[in-house]
């Protein structure tokens, strides 16, 4: 099966490389001409995935129609804020029957919608799946053992992707809980910002472990309110990705939290070429939680920090040192 | 209330220091005369908690009866293998009505019993609670924000301990799920050995995150089979402690896994003065899982490595790269 990966950020590049190694013909679309050219010519993406050697078989282009020509599976790995516009462009370009696989981990801020909802609106009737889980791009590019989830409501699609995407070191588990998988990948970025603040304030591992525990509880509460299954939030796409993002290496969202704790403004902390999805997701999560009357103390405090000017130390101390109750 | 802490390992020393700072008169019992003397004279425990300054108010002794004299709350922080013998000695020494708080994170290997069961046998009718959660000793000694759980079946006891033990930076949550809290603290050490093997083999954060996710699932399965609540295993004493032990700094159990992955024998990897509870707990967990027909693939593989001579790489590869199924 011919695959296209749309978006040559770190995750798109790693996924495309993996799919080539899994034996598929793959073309990746990069918005930036120079990124596409470097992937084609030097088998590198030094801007978005430095340090990784890409397989020579990976084709790249900056022309969307060329990337999509003759493709049966389209994996979309662009930031959530660009998704609706991109999916609109795909309407006339996708082959009949081609499936869309979302690898975006975020919510649409204005509408608070998940990517599956955006696709349903822009590409109605199109077979859809979401791919998510604990997967630092550089480790996937280096073929470290990784396990993720593919979820779809289309009968058999998750299993088809499981077979097509899995290799010895990249394990794909199949699920039908699209809502749970999407929320896990999006909401963990909110908690990761708080983890970064804890790091930046000089607090220790005990504090981060308590935050992760509380974070999973509030992610699960919102997940359940929106129709996701608790098992999914406690699985790879929820807990697994939460742990990875809050403890393993320096994720983009955690770096934002650290910068805020050091005294940088939100504008300073979020500048740069790589998008911190958690900043936007915090606002959408807050709105969703409020409208569903779900208690999400961490998301509420992060919203105060990011959009209300609350000092990060005050927010974290209110979270960690609040009045005692039963667990 | 006068407190005694029995056991001057890292955790006992940190807990005792904390209780002094929380305003209680506290005496700690050390098996080693030189450890007791150093705590009394220099306010240090350079063998078991190097790098921490202990509060001058902390009294220490190597005579058990002296430590227990006039005490209302006895916190026991000795390795599981010494617990039954210690509790037997306490029979004639404890004041009437004095409570026992277990801070041991392990199971009795010969009987597969939890510490609450050991106490019920050796000190029948004695008010009992367990204290557990994500708490590196050195961070507690340095007053980093930490959250733990106190669980008891005695009405009001968990709440009494919550009030007595909590400070601004040390938060105690109350629970009545003794089984869940005890199993969380014990079983996470088994998963931590596997996490150490993954580190030692050079695998990355993605692999550890997947392991933690699967680890919590199997801990919860055994917990449920033995009467613990899923919420407890997903809480501070389960998930929180699991994440801490598998990702934060180098815990003793993770270090054993790393050493095994480097090719050390089990005897070499477990030598030294500090006890790796996970090695013994692995055997007890395996036996419990087998007798209750609970699937615990990580505990099963760790038993093969620790007691069956299986190479660590083979065990981890069988875990991480096994046949695909639905999550």
Greatest chain-chain contact = A-B, 52 and 52 residues
Low-confidence parts of chain A: none
List the secondary-structure elements of chain A in sequence, H or E: EHEHEHEHEHEHEHEHHHHHHHHH
Distance between the termini of chain A: 50 Å
Structural class of chain A, please?
Answer: alpha/beta
Order of strands in the sheet with most strands of chain A: 3-2-1-4-5-6-7-8
Radius of gyration of chain A: 19 Å
Task: Describe the protein.
2 copies of one chain form a homodimer. By secondary structure, chain A is an alpha/beta fold. Helices cover 52% and strands 11% of the residues of chain A. An 8-stranded mixed beta sheet of chain A has the order 3-2-1-4-5-6-7-8, with helices on both faces. In chain A, helix 7 (157-165) links the parallel strand 7 and strand 8. Chain A starts with a strand and ends in a 7-residue tail after the last helix. At the A-B interface, strand 7, strand 8, helix 9 and helix 11 of A face strand 7, strand 8, helix 9 and helix 11 of B.
């Amino acid at each position: 099966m011919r695959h296209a990966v749309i978006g040559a950020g770190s995750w798109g590049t790693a996924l495309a490389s993996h799919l080539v190694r899994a034996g598929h013909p793959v073309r990746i679309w990069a918005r930036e001409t120079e990124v596409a050219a470097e992937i084609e010519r030097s088998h590198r993406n030094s801007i978005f995935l430095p340090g990784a050697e890409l397989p020579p078989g990976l084709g790249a282009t900056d022309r969307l129609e060329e990337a999509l020509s003759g493709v049966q599976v389209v994996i979309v790995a662009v930031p959530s804020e660009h998704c609706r516009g991109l999916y609109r462009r795909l309407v006339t370009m996708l082959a009949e029957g081609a499936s869309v696989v979302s690898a975006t981990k975020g919510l649409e801020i204005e509408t608070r919608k998940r990517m599956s909802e955006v696709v349903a609106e822009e590409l109605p009737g199109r077979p859809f799946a979401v791919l998510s889980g604990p997967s630092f791009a550089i480790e996937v590019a280096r073929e470290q053992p990784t396990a993720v989830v593919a979820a779809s409501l289309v009968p058999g699609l998750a299993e088809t992707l499981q077979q097509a995407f899995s290799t010895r070191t990249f394990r794909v588990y199949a699920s039908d809980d699209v809502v749970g998988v999407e929320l896990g990948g999006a909401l963990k970025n909110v908690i990761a910002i708080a983890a970064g603040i804890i790091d930046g304030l000089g607090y220790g591992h005990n504090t981060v472990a308590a935050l992760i525990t509380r974070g999973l509880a509030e992610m699960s509460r919102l997940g359940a309110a929106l129709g996701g299954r608790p098992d999914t939030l406690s699985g790879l796409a929820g807990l697994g990705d939460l742990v990875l993002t809050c403890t393993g290496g320096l994720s983009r969202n955690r770096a934002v939290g650290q910068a805020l704790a050091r005294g940088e403004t939100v504008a300073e902390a979020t500048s740069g070429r790589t998008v911190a999805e958690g900043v936007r997701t915090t606002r959408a999560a807050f709105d969703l939680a409020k409208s569903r009357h779900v208690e999400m103390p961490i998301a509420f405090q992060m919203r105060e920090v990011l959009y209300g000017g609350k000092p990060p130390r005050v927010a974290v101390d209110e979270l960690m040192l609040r009045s005692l109750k039963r667990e």
